[in-house]
Fold this sequence. Notes:
InterPro entries: Glyco_hydro_beta-prop_sf. Helix content is 19%, strand content 29%.
Amino acid sequence: MMCVNASGALTTSKYFLHFDKKGIIVPQITYEEFDDFVNANDVTDGKYYRYNQRNHIVEKEGFKILLWDKSLVFFSRKINDKFCFLHRIKPEIQVVTGIESLEDLSEEFWRNYLINFKD
């Protein structure tokens, strides 16, 4: 049985003829790291912890179990010349706004985003 992590990635295309894979753009962190970030400021009511607990499985068949963050939907146009998109860390849907460049979606960006994570 293979372990599957579900992470949102970006691929671009013109006219759907050729595709350019940009890679994973969501945080690649474990559930434990996620809990540490969102509980740093005690900003959630615990539903994310309960939902994402995953029976305390941290590794399966040698693979780390990562936070599932998928279902990315980019807005079709930039807003104020910035990227905005929806993504899903269950059980809710979140909005990321004000991204000037996709390179801004760094490990540091996601760390700050999750530390300030709100319901």
